[in-house]
Design brief:
One of its GO terms (cellular component) is proton-transporting V-type ATPase complex. By secondary structure, this protein is α/β, with parallel strands linked by helices. The protein has eight helices and 17 strands.
């Protein structure tokens, strides 16, 4: 029994899983997704009417089931290592999403880890809906195959990180609505990526979602490999007091791409107008397979040299506050989506981000629209008042008992 807002810790998760690990039929299937939240089941099943992607009824038909609404990121992230250490499992990893038959040797305990298709958020919710529907079919197909073969098994369906940001629920009274209350984002679910020279950190980089799309068809989610497993090569990064380059090298991020390098080029310059140094993210470069070179110019991502730069949304779309503008033809083949972007390439202290200067200015498009609309309405009101003040009454009036009043045309 879990009360509202309770987050299952790593210790609680191990206690919950003990009955599964100690039972006689030790066949455990772990479906591991890159990101998932309990709210996804409600959101995607109700937002699209009859297009409910969750057709698999294994949870309802199973003799025993448990749903944990919220699990600590650290606990779910290291679930695989915990399971491997908990017993003499025969580990089998499957990444082929088209697998239709699973070979299980029932003479020994089996731990089967199935890496599910990555969900790409920020581009198209319909694509995400289709990906979830395909994942649901895979889970249903494999569980049905094991049931037909009479193999007892247990299933865990979880993810490395949450797909949705929930409000803080540290204490019960914070769950109630309060006057002028604002929902705060969770703290960083994983540490930022850092680049060191010697013993000093010179670059810090963080993003909640780091996703690319090539040729409008190939989705590349780099969030986990960059920040969670940190399976990325940053040895080509360069640091100096004037220019800094963050180089991220990936080996076979997806099928069809053998290597991918992403560079963030920053500069530190003195501006006489403000009489201080400013750090600026000048451009972003994408190099595919060492041949295809794409370059983007960056808008409005700058901060005082002592601060870090933060933007809620960075990408190639015109709707994002900080936009990546293609500067060559190859760049037009790429779509970039980065959420909760934060970077610091100068004056890093104690391996922590400095105060963040947000890229969103004070005069946002909504504020400008409100100001222009208010000015137009005030102009109409002023014109109306001016016209009313120009109205005058007649200086003479006709007396019906006297002779008719004659008014010359000159008057």
């Amino acid at each position: 029994a879990l009360h509202e807002g309770h987050i299952v810790s790593a210790q609680e998760l191990t206690e919950i899983l003990q009955p599964v690990l100690t039972q006689n039929s030790r066949n455990l299937i772990l479906f591991l997704q890159d990101m998932l939240s309990i709210d996804d089941f409600t959101y995607f099943s109700e937002s699209y009417g009859n297009k409910n992607p969750f057709q698999n009824e294994s949870l309802q038909s199973s003799p025993s089931s448990l749903v944990l609404p919220a699990v600590d990121c650290e606990a779910s992230r290291y679930l695989l290592s915990f399971l491997q250490k908990s017993g003499g499992w025969k580990l089998t990893k499957i990444t082929n999403l088209n697998v239709s038959h699973l070979e299980v040797n029932t003479s020994k305990p089996n731990l089967v880890v199935i890496q599910l298709q990555q969900l790409v958020s920020g581009f198209n919710e319909v694509s995400t809906l289709e990906a979830i529907a395909e994942i649901d079919k895979i889970i249903g197909r494999l569980t049905m195959d094991l049931q037909e073969r009479g193999i007892p098994f247990s299933v865990i369906y979880t993810a490395v990180r949450p797909s949705r940001i929930s409000r803080r629920t540290d204490v019960v009274w914070e769950l109630r609505r309060q006057l002028m209350a604002t929902e705060e984002e969770d703290s960083l679910s994983y540490p930022p990526l850092n680049v060191t020279t010697g013993n000093d950190t010179c670059i810090l980089f963080y993003a909640r979602n780091f996703t690319l799309k090539a040729n409008n068809s190939v989705f590349i989610d780099l969030t986990n490999v960059t920040f969670v497993s940190q399976d990325v090569d940053v040895s080509s990064s360069e640091c100096s007091d004037v220019n800094t380059t963050l180089s991220l090298r990936y080996t076979e991020p997806v099928n069809g791409i053998s290597s991918l390098e992403i560079r963030f080029l920053m500069s530190n310059q003195f501006y006489e107008g403000s009489a201080r140094n400013w750090s600026t993210l000048d451009s972003v470069e994408i190099i595919q397979d060492g041949e295809k070179f794409a370059k983007f110019y960056v808008s409005v991502i700058s901060a005082p040299a002592e601060y870090s730069s933060h933007c809620q949304l960075v990408g190639t779309s015109n709707l994002y506050p900080a936009r990546l503008i293609p500067s060559n033809d190859e760049a037009k083949n790429w779509d970039v989506f980065i959420s909760t972007f934060q970077i610091q390439g100068f004056n890093v202290e104690n391996n922590q981000f400095s105060y963040a200067s947000d890229c969103t200015g004070f005069f946002t498009p909504a504020i400008w629209m409100g100001l222009v609309t208010s000015i137009v309405l005030l102009w109409i009101l002023a014109y109306g008042i001016h016209m009313i003040m120009q109205l005058t009454t007649n200086s003479r009036f006709d007396d019906p008992k006297g002779p008719a009043l004659s008014v010359p045309l000159t008057e």
